[in-house]
Amino acid sequence: MSSPKKTEAEEGEESSFAKRLITGQAAEKYFEVVHPTLPTLAHYTLENVTSLGCGFDFRLRKSGLDDFMAVDVKGLNDSR
Fold first, then answer.
1. Rounded CA gap, 74 and 62, in Å?
2. What distances in angstroms separate CA 78 from CA 14, 26, 43, 48, one per listed residue?
3. Closest C-alpha to 77, from 33, 22, 32, 16
4. C-alpha to C-alpha distance for 14 and 45, rounded to whole angstroms
5. How many helices (H) and strands (E) does the chain have?
6. Model-level pTM greater than 0.85?
7. Residue 26 confidence (pLDDT)
8. Is 58 helix (H, G, I), strand (E, B) or coil?
9. What are the tens digits of pLDDT across the range 17-37?
């Protein structure tokens, strides 16, 4: 039994999702690299929580504090 053929719209949605997934992952990696160079964030410890499914990508914490800043990185279209 064969699978039903996908419409152009369905194929476009899958392609768009795949592109967002790739650019989102690239943006997350970029943020991990540049975060220490950003003056307003450099004094925060970075914790990657993407695999926890908590709705955001990173926790930023200051030493000695329980509170954290939640960061959700979206996408990357360029290398900067």
1. 23
2. 22, 10, 26, 22
3. 22
4. 35
5. 1, 3
6. no
7. 83
8. strand
9. 556 666 678 888 989 999 999
